[in-house]
Amino acid sequence: MSSTQQQSYCPRCRVWTYYVPGNNHYKFCDEILLPLNSMGEPVRPPKQSALLAIVIMAHPKRRTMAENLAKTLECPIVWDEKNHLWDTCSRAWKHGAAIGSEWVLVLQDDAIPTSDFRAKAEAFIQAHNDKDHMIAFYTGNQSASRITAAQKSGKDHFEAGFIFNEVAICMKAEHIGNMVRWCDEREAKNDQYITQWMRLAKLKCLHTIPSLVDHNEGESIYRANEGRPNPTEARKAFLYEK
Hints:
By secondary structure, the protein is an alpha/beta fold. The chain has one domain: Spore Coat Polysaccharide Biosynthesis Protein SpsA, Chain A, CATH 3.90.550.10. Helices cover about 30% and strands about 20% of the residues. It is built from 7 helices and 11 strands. The strands form 3 sheets. It has a 7-stranded mixed β-sheet, sandwiched between helices. Strand 1 and strand 2 form a beta hairpin. The protein is globular and about 60 Å long. It starts with 5 loop residues before the first strand and ends in a 17-residue tail after the last helix.
């Protein structure tokens, strides 16, 4: 969050938003809708660090896996309620934005984070917080050549105009309202629409080297819902720091 922004409650829209001084209204109105208590007051998610909020998007079929992940990372879970990937994904991003951190990371329920994940993730963000971009903490075998080339050059990431997998995506909270709105207007079915929005927003994605998240291989719930087979290629990080 920049020094010119503060998180406030908008009584007109009944949402927590970022207020930008000098503007007539709030930047995230009608985007971050929080549940209300019995008194009609908004219930804010518990705060995390000022730099990074982590949220897990999860399907009930993976309850044990998701709850173990949440316990390890001390972060909330947003559950699938409609058997619909984008519905769960969009609510996870909104929940993350409402926490009030500068950056938000949405993890899928089959993510396997490295040890001391938050410290390593925040160190990477701080090292590259001088410009606007997105971050992928997981990259699979399809990017092996890019990873190898960047590694030989001594880099801790490679930059691309594409998100190769959505297992662990991170972006600045200030972008979430526009991203969710754009995807909703196009009736998004999955989180792959985020790449399309990213390109239109003229952002790049930094893919960390090594990946700080691996992928727990298993049946793809949403592919099964659509009657599609699981991918034949291994869905594991090409280079992973345990």
